[in-house]
Amino acid sequence: MLLFIGGLLFGATMVYLHMWGSTVVRAWEMPTGPGQMQSSVSTYSMAEVWTQWHPEGGFSGAALVALLYGILPAGILAIETWLLLPTVHGGGPVSRSIRQAFSATTSCVGVVFFLTALIGSVIVTVLNYLDANDSARLQGYEFGLVILVLGGLCLQVAWVSRAARAVALPQEAVEFPPRCEKCGYDLTAQPEDARCPECGEFVAASLSPERRPGVGWQRSMNFATGVRTVIQIVLDQEKFYRALKMHVPREYGERFARPQAAVIAVLSAGWLAAMLLHDRYVSFPEFPAIPIISGFLITLCCWGIHRLVGAAVMSWWIVQGVLPSSDWGRAIICYESAYLWVLAIYNGFLISTYMMYGEWITDLTTSIGLPRYMIFSMEWEVAVLLGGSILLIVNWLIRYRHAAAAVRWSNY
Ligand SMILES: [Zn+2]
């Protein structure tokens, strides 16, 4: 009910902003003789805009805007709820976790509303100002507006992540009988010096704490162990998950995952700025804006892809009952955030070569007789970027499978 009212209120705000934006309109006319383009500014009152939008007093402009902005947030809320599911799930009924994730998502509706009203007002004011005055004076203002919107989105994402961690359900009590690390056979009734009846592994070897000594990050959480952990997860996944202690608080994984997207974004933005400086784009008004916009976009992409793949994998694990504890699933998702570096380096490397050598892949493919465009009239450069990223994400799903298999029968 509250949400319905919120949706209505949000729609009404957007209508108001759109109408406000229409109060100042600059119309351009083609010159009849030689000379510059002529423009004239018309200003309207809100009431006039309202009648403009309702030519026959019927269903039009305002209702359409309200409908569009009512459906859009509803869709975003639904998707975000699913993305936050791995964070809040505690092994109990999934419906309860969904309710909890939904409450985390909606907890920031007020903030989003406030930000929309604020940022929207700024945008409309600037646009109206530009329409009413000579717009040449404020060149590059669109970049400022894009930065504002993307920054608002990043803030919202950080807010819901925080809210989800705050309302995360505690792990339901799970029985952990001693298991054979290799095959999962229940070793409860087996003597210490026996072998696993299923696969022949030594019982003592499975139950020895040295089997899972923990990783560097679990001994000391600092910058150096963080970097080493990222490298180890990417290059030697199997060894990492075979050593990772699973019966530990959530905090270890979460603190590892939290900074990844932001660090990748800052480094990428810095790299892009260096590339632009090198190519002497400095004098362009867009120069400082482009790295900042890219930084925000990369943050959102990293967050979105990590959460999306994580939510898909977690949903699969819940349905199939793959892992004994949802805390373990969450831990794997957190540590797999290291793989974002692979995606970032692949994309960053390709884009850098495009900036330095232009369309070198198209040059290469046309020189060996391939057509200029691939399917959907996509340039080769874009196709390689997208195709490679999709392959890397498929590989990520396979990695999740291996990770789950490596920790599934953990005794420690
Ligand atoms: Zn066994």
Q: Tell me, briefly, the overall form.
A: globular
Structural class: mainly alpha
Helix content: 55-70%
Overall residue-averaged pLDDT value: 81
CA radius of gyration is 27 Å
The profile of the biggest β sheet is: 2 strands, antiparallel
Poorly predicted regions are none
DSSP helical segment count: 17
N- to C-terminal distance: 46 Å
Indicate how many domains the architecture comprises: 3
Q: What amount of the residues lies in strands?
A: under 5%
Question: Which molecules other than protein and nucleic acid are bound?
Answer: zinc ion
Order of helices and strands: HEEHHHHHHHHHHHHHHHH
- Strand sequence of the main sheet, in spatial order? 1-2
Short summary:
The protein is mainly alpha-helical and 412 residues long. It is built from 17 helices and 2 strands.
